[in-house]
Design brief:
mainly alpha
Length: 73
Protein backbone atom coordinates (compact mmCIF):
# COMPACT_ATOMS: atom_id res chain seq x y z
CA UNK A 1 0.00 0.00 0.00
CA UNK A 2 1.17 3.49 -0.82
CA UNK A 3 0.17 6.76 0.75
CA UNK A 4 0.69 10.43 0.03
CA UNK A 5 -0.35 13.78 1.40
CA UNK A 6 -2.38 16.26 -0.60
CA UNK A 7 -3.51 19.75 0.20
CA UNK A 8 -7.18 20.73 -0.32
CA UNK A 9 -6.61 22.16 -3.80
CA UNK A 10 -4.84 18.99 -4.92
CA UNK A 11 -7.67 16.85 -3.54
CA UNK A 12 -10.19 18.88 -5.53
CA UNK A 13 -8.11 18.47 -8.67
CA UNK A 14 -7.83 14.69 -8.21
CA UNK A 15 -11.60 14.48 -7.65
CA UNK A 16 -12.19 16.47 -10.82
CA UNK A 17 -9.85 14.29 -12.88
CA UNK A 18 -11.44 11.09 -11.60
CA UNK A 19 -14.97 12.38 -12.29
CA UNK A 20 -13.99 13.40 -15.81
CA UNK A 21 -12.43 9.99 -16.48
CA UNK A 22 -15.50 8.15 -15.17
CA UNK A 23 -17.85 10.32 -17.24
CA UNK A 24 -15.83 9.64 -20.39
CA UNK A 25 -15.87 5.91 -19.70
CA UNK A 26 -19.63 5.95 -19.08
CA UNK A 27 -20.16 7.78 -22.35
CA UNK A 28 -17.99 5.30 -24.24
CA UNK A 29 -19.69 2.32 -22.58
CA UNK A 30 -23.03 3.49 -23.95
CA UNK A 31 -21.66 3.62 -27.51
CA UNK A 32 -23.07 0.64 -29.46
CA UNK A 33 -20.18 0.75 -31.96
CA UNK A 34 -17.64 -0.37 -29.36
CA UNK A 35 -16.93 -4.12 -29.23
CA UNK A 36 -17.96 -6.11 -26.12
CA UNK A 37 -14.37 -7.18 -25.39
CA UNK A 38 -13.28 -3.54 -25.32
CA UNK A 39 -16.28 -2.64 -23.14
CA UNK A 40 -15.32 -5.29 -20.59
CA UNK A 41 -11.84 -3.80 -20.34
CA UNK A 42 -13.37 -0.34 -19.99
CA UNK A 43 -15.67 -1.59 -17.21
CA UNK A 44 -12.64 -2.98 -15.35
CA UNK A 45 -10.88 0.38 -15.70
CA UNK A 46 -14.04 2.16 -14.54
CA UNK A 47 -14.19 0.01 -11.40
CA UNK A 48 -10.56 0.83 -10.57
CA UNK A 49 -11.10 4.58 -11.05
CA UNK A 50 -14.36 4.40 -9.07
CA UNK A 51 -12.63 2.70 -6.12
CA UNK A 52 -10.01 5.47 -6.08
CA UNK A 53 -12.75 8.11 -6.31
CA UNK A 54 -14.56 6.57 -3.32
CA UNK A 55 -11.52 7.31 -1.16
CA UNK A 56 -11.80 11.03 -1.85
CA UNK A 57 -15.51 11.76 -1.46
CA UNK A 58 -18.34 11.01 0.99
CA UNK A 59 -20.46 7.93 0.19
CA UNK A 60 -23.42 10.07 -0.89
CA UNK A 61 -21.31 11.59 -3.67
CA UNK A 62 -20.44 8.17 -5.11
CA UNK A 63 -24.04 7.13 -5.75
CA UNK A 64 -24.32 8.89 -9.09
CA UNK A 65 -21.24 7.08 -10.39
CA UNK A 66 -22.25 3.53 -9.41
CA UNK A 67 -22.00 1.51 -12.62
CA UNK A 68 -25.39 0.20 -13.68
CA UNK A 69 -24.97 -2.81 -16.00
CA UNK A 70 -28.27 -2.11 -17.78
CA UNK A 71 -27.27 1.43 -18.71
CA UNK A 72 -24.07 0.25 -20.41
CA UNK A 73 -25.74 -2.26 -22.69
Amino acid sequence: MLGFLLNEKEVQEVEHMLKREMEELLLDLSDPRIDDVVKRAMEEKYQIVFRIYKRFVPPKETMKYVLNKRSTQ
